[in-house]
C-alpha cells in the first residue's frame, strides 16, 4: 500500500498545489479524467477561444451601423476548433507528461478513485493509497435532465459541443444560465440559427433583475429566445436531425427542430462519486463538501486535520478564479499546519462572456434593499455607455453600468455591467469594494482617462446620489 505525504484528487486547480515545498516529499496526484481539469479542457479557456472569433464574425452587423460595410465570407469551424484544441490538448498532454514522467517525487494515477477512509483512497484498478494530508479538488460535471433522448449523438453538453464536426445549421440551447448564454452567443455569432429555451421567464437568475432583463432583450435581437418551456424529450427524426420537445405550463407540446441540442442545465459537484460517506465527510445540501474557513473538510461538524477541499467540489461559485484563490490558501495550509490561513470571499466578481457581456460583483439592487438594516438608505444608478464619448463612438445603445450603494457612507454594495468589455470595466469596482473605498473617493480621487470607455464607470460613480463629505476630493 503506497503511502504519501500528500494525495490530491483532481488535476485541475489541484495541480497547482505541487509547489517546490514538496520536492523531496512524496505526492500522489489522482485524476480519472483528462489532465488539467475543466477550465483548461472543456471550460473557461476553450469557450473564450471561441468567443473571440465569434465576436469578429459578428462585426459586420456592428460595422454597418457605423458606415463601414463588412461582409462575413465563411466561418471555418473545423479550422477554429482544431486551432483551439491543438493548443489546449498539447498543454494538457505536456502537463500530464511532466507530472507522470519528469518528477520523481510525484506519482500520477490516471484513474478514478474513491475514499475508503478520510486519508485512504482506492483507485479503480484497486491500488490503496494512504497519505498524511489529502486534498479533494474533484470539481463538478454537467447535469442532464432525466428525460428521453439524452443519449442521442445530437445531444451535447459543454463537455462535447466544442469538438463537433462542422458548424450545424440549427442549434437548440436548453437552459438560461452562464453556459447557455455563452454558447448561444458563440453559435449565433457564427451564423447558426439558435433557439435558446428556458424553463422560467428569467434568464441568468442570481443576476440583478434589470441587467438580466436588458440582457434578455439584447439576446432576443441576436437569437430566438423562448421561455416557460420545460424539456420533455429529444426525438430522432431519422435524417440526422432531432426535435427538441418541450412542454408549456398548460401541458402543451412545443417541438423545435435542431441539428445539435446543447443541454446547459447546471453542474453538480463530483462528491457523489467520491465515497464521501465512507470517508465521513459532511456534505451541504447542494452536494458540495462542508468545510471550515481554512478549507478543512468537516466530519460530524468538526474539521478533519490534514483533509482539505477546493474548487467546485467545495464552493458554490463554480468559478475558476475562486478555485485558484482557494488553491493558494490550501497550498499555504498544507505547508504550514501550525499557521493556518482562512479563505476570503469578499467581493467575488463574475462575468458572462456572452453577447452582450455581463460582469457583476456584490449585491443586486433587490438583495441590497431587502438585506439593508432599517433606516439604511440604498441608492442606485444606471449609466448608459451611450452617455459617454466612447459610447458615442460606438453608437452604443445597449451597454449600462448599474451601481448600488449606501447613501450615508458611500459604501459600494454592488456593481453590474452589461455591454462591451464589461469583464474589464468591472475591475476598479471590485477593487473599491474589496478595499472599502467610498464611492466619492473612487470617483473623485484618481484621474480617469478621457475619453476611454471606462468613463462610463466614472460617470456612474459621480451620478450616484451618495453623501459627499466636505473634504472629499473635488
Ligand atoms: C463551459 C464552461 C465555461 C466556464 N467558463 C468559466 C469562465 O469563463 N470563468 C470562470 O471563472 N469559470 C468558468 N467555468 C468554471 C470553471 O471551469 C470551474 O469553476 C473550475 O474549472 C473548477 O476547477 P476545479 O479545480 O474545482 O475542478 P476541475 O478543473 O473540474 O478538476 C477536477 C478534476 O478531478 C477529477 N476527478 C473528479 N473526481 C475524481 C475521482 N473520484 N477520482 C479521480 N479523479 C477525479 C476530474 O477528472 C477533473 O479533472 C466554466 C465552466 C464550464 C463548464
Ligand atoms: N463565464 C463564467 O464564469 C462561466 C461560464 C460558464 C460556466 N460557468 C460556471 O459553470 C456553472 C454551470 O453553468 P450552467 O450554465 O450549466 O448552470 P447555471 O446554474 O448557471 O444555469 C442552469 C440553467 O439551467 C436551467 N435548468 C435547470 N434544470 C433544468 C431543466 N431540467 N430543464 C430546463 N432548464 C433547466 C436553470 O433554470 C438555469 O437557467 C455556473 O454556475 C458557472 O459558475 C461560469
TrEMBL record:
Superkingdom field: Bacteria
Protein residues bound to FAD: 48, 312
Active-site residues per Swiss-Prot or TrEMBL entry: 450 (proton acceptor)
GO BP terms, alphabetized: 2-oxoglutarate metabolic process
Annotated S-S bridges: 39-44
Record keywords: Disulfide bond, FAD, Flavoprotein, NAD, Nucleotide-binding, Oxidoreductase, Redox-active center
Cofactor binding, note field: Binds 1 FAD per subunit.
Keyword Oxidoreductase in annotation: yes
EC number: 1.8.1.7
Alphabetized Gene3D superfamilies for the sequence: 3.30.390.30, FAD/NAD(P)-binding domain (3.50.50.60)
Pfam families assigned to the protein according to its UniProt record, in alphabetical order: Pyr_redox_2, Pyr_redox_dim
One example GO MF annotation: glutathione-disulfide reductase (NADPH) activity
Required cofactor(s): FAD
Annotated InterPro entries: Class-I_Pyr_Nuc-Dis_Oxidored (IPR050151), FAD/NAD-bd_sf (IPR036188), FAD/NAD-binding_dom (IPR023753), FAD/NAD-linked_Rdtase_dimer_sf (IPR016156), Pyr_nuc-diS_OxRdtase (IPR001100), Pyr_nucl-diS_OxRdtase_dimer (IPR004099), Pyr_OxRdtase_I_AS (IPR012999)
Record-listed NAD(+) binding positions: 175-182, 266
FAD/NAD(P)-binding domain: residues covered: 4-327
Domain Pyridine nucleotide-disulphide oxidoreductase dimerisation positions: 348-460
PANTHER family (UniProt xref): DIHYDROLIPOYL DEHYDROGENASE (PTHR22912:SF217), DISULFIDE OXIDOREDUCTASE (PTHR22912)
Descriptive protein name: Mycothione reductase
Amino acid at each position: 500500500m503506497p503511502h504519501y505525504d500528500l494525495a490530491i484528487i483532481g488535476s485541475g486547480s489541484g495541480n497547482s498545489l505541487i509547489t517546490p515545498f514538496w520536492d523531496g516529499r512524496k505526492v500522489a496526484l489522482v485524476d480519472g479524467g483528462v489532465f488539467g481539469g475543466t477550465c483548461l479542457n472543456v471550460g473557461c479557456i476553450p469557450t473564450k477561444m471561441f468567443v473571440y472569433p465569434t465576436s469578429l464574425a459578428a462585426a459586420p452587423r456592428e460595422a454597418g451601423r457605423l458606415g463601414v460595410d463588412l461582409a462575413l465570407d465563411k466561418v471555418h469551424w473545423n479550422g477554429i476548433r482544431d486551432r483551439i484544441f491543438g493548443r489546449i490538448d498539447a498543454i494538457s498532454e505536456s502537463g500530464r507528461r511532466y507530472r507522470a514522467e519528469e518528477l520523481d517525487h510525484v506519482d500520477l494515477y490516471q484513474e478514478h478513485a474513491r475514499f475508503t477512509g478520510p486519508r485512504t483512497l482506492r483507485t479503480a484498478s484497486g491500488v490503496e493509497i494512504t497519505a498524511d494530508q489529502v486534498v479533494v479538488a474533484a470539481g463538478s460535471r454537467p447535469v442532464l435532465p432525466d428525460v428521453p433522448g439524452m443519449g442521442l449523438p445530437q445531444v451535447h453538453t459543454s463537455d462535447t459541443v466544442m469538438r463537433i464536426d462542422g458548424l450545424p445549421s440549427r442549434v437548440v440551447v436548453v437552459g438560461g444560465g452562464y453556459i447557455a448564454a455563452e454558447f448561444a452567443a458563440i453559435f449565433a455569432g457564427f451564423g447558426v440559427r439558435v433557439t435558446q429555451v428556458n424553463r422560467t421567464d428569467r434568464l441568468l437568475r442570481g443576476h440583478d433583475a434589470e441587467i438580466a432583463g436588458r440582457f434578455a432583450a439584447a439576446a432576443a435581437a441576436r437569437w430566438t429566445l423562448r421561455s416557460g418551456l420545460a424539456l420533455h424529450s429529444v426525438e430522432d427524426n431519422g435524417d440526422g436531425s432531432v426535435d427538441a420537445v418541450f412542454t408549456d405550463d398548460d401541458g402543451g407540446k412545443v417541438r423545435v427542430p435542431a441539428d445539435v441540442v446543447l443541454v446547459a442545465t447546471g453542474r453538480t459537484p463530483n462528491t457523489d462519486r467520491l465515497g464521501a460517506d465512507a470517508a465521513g465527510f459532511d456534505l451541504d445540501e447542494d452536494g458540495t463538501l462542508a468545510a471550515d474557513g481554512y478549507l478543512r473538510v468537516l466530519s460530524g461538524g468538526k474539521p478533519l486535520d490534514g483533509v482539505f477541499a477546493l474548487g467546485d467540489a467545495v464552493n458554490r461559485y463554480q468559478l475558476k478564479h475562486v478555485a485558484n484563490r482557494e488553491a493558494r490558501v490550501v497550498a499555504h495550509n498544507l505547508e504550514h499546519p501550525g499557521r493556518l490561513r482562512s479563505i476570503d470571499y469578499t467581493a467575488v466578481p463574475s462575468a458572462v462572456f456572452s453577447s452582450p457581456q455581463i460582469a457583476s460583483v456584490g449585491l443586486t439592487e433587490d438583495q441590497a434593499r431587502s438585506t439593508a438594516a432599517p433606516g439604511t438608505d440604498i441608492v442606485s444608478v444606471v449609466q448608459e455607455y451611450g452617455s459617454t464619448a466612447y459610447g458615442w463612438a460606438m453608437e452604443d445603445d445597449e451597454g449600462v453600468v448599474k451601481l448600488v450603494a449606501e447613501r450615508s457612507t458611500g459604501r459600494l454594495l454592488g456593481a453590474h455591467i452589461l455591454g462591451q468589455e464589461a469583464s474589464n470595466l468591472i475591475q476598479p469596482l471590485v477593487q473599491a469594494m474589496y478595499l472599502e473605498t467610498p464611492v466619492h473617493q473612487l470617483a473623485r480621487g484618481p484621474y480617469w482617462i478621457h475619453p476611454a470607455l471606462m468613463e462610463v464607470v466614472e460617470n456612474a460613480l459621480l451620478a450616484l446620489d451618495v453623501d459627499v463629505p466636505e473634504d472629499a476630493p473635488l
